[in-house]
């Protein structure tokens, strides 16, 4: 089946045009020009797709309401053609001041990022910028549950990295190492199993980690 | 001082070009082509600006972490000029499946919309679409605090409309009235005072309404 954009242009998947970046990347629409590496354990989904589908599942079974936030953009020019949808003609990506996902689970405020790395033995802190750390710290201080879903793409392993562990390494990064050892994430975090429905059962990991 | 967009074009405020719409409207960037009516009690700010500034204040004093979500858009075409920021060349506004604001306050998940009406005696339910009602219902059922900040622009009055009152009228709208009487909002909700800092002290209203 062919899909068309509101302007009538044919939709063409862009995978073939995409180029891989070198080390690690954030999995969101900003990486349009990068290749989103595929989670083979999850029927060809990217990490973002797998999390979104998990969130849809959790919403459908009324277990949690968690959404990915839209990409922040700065709109510069919009045209309003007659009898047709408004078209954004010029806009720019803005740096996110918060994390990608938030919502509610068991009455708790949930706030997290999803990241993946091609590194085999550690997770680079360069995956975060200071605004995101500050945001998660502020949420944690008010009683929120903050974490990162980390994927090691070389082994297709998924972990929940609790915010407190991330913060410990973040605070030390200027005079110590600039990445979190995978062994530490295995010890302090929770390893997630791939499953069918939802693709990533991360709330089970949250139950375990935070005694919910 | 002159501001320039990343492409070098001069920033020009668009107020003068804007046209007022007839009855009510949602205050967000979608209303770029509409005039955002000004809250005179709030030093010329729109409702959205006043809420955003209040959220910045609450964040600064560590009372709450609440953000407006970015406008959901569907990106169709992006160009990546060399040595310059990526430019979105074609994109469309998408219908929001959630509300505009969410975050954490006193350990609770907070979720709300901001709307204004030029009506004098009632608040039209046409300000909402069913996805937003479903979203707030799901959040409430999981223990979240959901509400709408309603502004009656003719009198510059602000109220917190609790979700339960909205839902009551929403459920009856197909065989009864299609708006909520202002008197009912005054009785069941909380009237908010304009102030200097934050411009809208809506968390005080939340404390009162939900015994926090």
Automatic annotation (TrEMBL), chains A, B:
InterPro entries xref list: Resolv_RecU, Restrct_endonuc-II-like, tRNA_endonuc-like_dom_sf
Entry's localization field: Cytoplasm
Cofactor note text: Binds 1 Mg(2+) ion per subunit.
EC number(s) recorded for this UniProt protein: 3.1.21.10
Cofactor: Mg(2+)
Domain of life: Bacteria
A molecular-function term among this protein's GO annotations: nucleic acid binding
Site (Transition state stabilizer): 115
Keyword entries, A-Z: Cytoplasm, DNA damage, DNA recombination, DNA repair, Endonuclease, Hydrolase, Magnesium, Metal-binding, Nuclease
Keyword Hydrolase listed: yes
Residues binding Mg(2+), per UniProt: 98, 100, 113, 132
Record's GO cellular component terms: cytoplasm
SUPFAM superfamilies: Restriction endonuclease-like
Function of the protein: Endonuclease that resolves Holliday junction intermediates in genetic recombination. Cleaves mobile four-strand junctions by introducing symmetrical nicks in paired strands. Promotes annealing of linear ssDNA with homologous dsDNA. Required for DNA repair, homologous recombination and chromosome segregation.
HAMAP family xref list: RecU
Membership in a protein family: Belongs to the RecU family.
Name of the protein in its database record: Holliday junction resolvase RecU
Organism: Ligilactobacillus hayakitensis DSM 18933 = JCM 14209
Gene label: recU
